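In response to reviewer comment 3 from the previous cycle, which asked for concrete evidence that the modeling workflow produces usable outputs, we include below a single protein chain processed end to end. The sequence was submitted unchanged, and the resulting structure tokens are shown without manual editing.
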Amino acid sequence: MRRPRFDFREDLSRSRDLIRREIDAYGYVLGWMEDWRVRKELPAGREAARAWWREVAKAKERPEWQLRQWEEAIRWYLSWLEICLRQGGDGKGVPERLKDAVHHAGARRGLALKTRQTYAGWMARFGAYAGTEQRVLDEVVAREWLAVLVDKEKAAFATQKQALNALVFFYRDVCGRERVDLQVKMRRTTPRQPVILNRAELMGLIGKLEDRYRTAALLQYGAGLRLKELVGLRLNDVDLERGVVTVRAGKGDKDRETVIPNCLKGALSQKIDESRQYWEKDRRNEVAGVALPGALARKMSRCGEKPGWHWLFCAEELSKDPESGVIRRHHLHPKVYAEAISRAAEKAGIMKRVTTHALRHAFATDLIRGGTDIRTLQELLGHADVKTTEIYAHAAEIGNERGVKSPLDQLCGLGVG
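The workflow returned the following structure tokens.
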């Protein structure tokens, strides 16, 4: 039997106990709280409301009248939720139902967890925009939403494509429509120049990095790896004798090889020994093997217990696998590593916006300056289109390195300034 569906937004808009101003104010704060709860994947209820109040509402000083109004809004919501549950509903609004539907459909289709999370997140945003199930199913509304992303939110071209792909997946794989044509044309945005660290900044960043992340950062710079590629390395991907590291299922689901710096082989050997120690500890404690890529996990599930499949950069503690729920050892968390890079950049006094990708940018521009040809660099970076690689050639040649002198230098030579 299908559970009855309720949506607090619809019931709030029809409430006879509140005036229009209260309805608008309650809708704003409850929509904010629900969006936060859905992103955090918390079940609807009093505990989620307390967590939002503690982490968001009270995160900064607010006027007393506003906090009182928000308290009243949450009381209204919890009363509504109690009635909803009593009548057999689950309290899930349109955004959350869309998110769950896309996540489950993606799992059936065998999509990667990250892809499922991305599509589900976009559909939750679309559900909040559409408001009702009828509007969600209307492709005209979907086109309107995509136009908002382009015209009002100024979303990048890649972001627009993500949202479009999520909508197409929903209409095709969740709704079962054979033909989906949203009749939209994505607007390309102007390519931005990458953030390039000079040698002094790079050395300052590495010098301020905490010890446990330094080898990972040096390898990312020395091999030109993306963040996901770096943390996902396994012991059998590292060949110290040949001096190459193999990237498995990189961007575009492609494998490639790139270089291992000779000066880093000793540190990597130590990391391999450290990973082996974690592997031996897990085997003694009969911990489940590490996670494996899709098909291999089905066909050769015990491979996760073999040392070659163990992570090069291991997490120090066991944790629950978000996909299977199994307690096992995971690799270094991308967010943890990224935050360590940000802290080091701040300590080093670097004024540029430094992310982990800045290390990959530095690898590319330094090779260009060293004379590496563009096609070789394209293979090392794993770019599908050489035009992407050419951005680094331009970045490496600008300014004085191209031999261009500012006209002000000539005036300074005449005593101006």
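The two ends are 82 Å apart (CA to CA). We consider this sufficient to address the reviewer's concern, and the full set will be provided in the supplementary archive.
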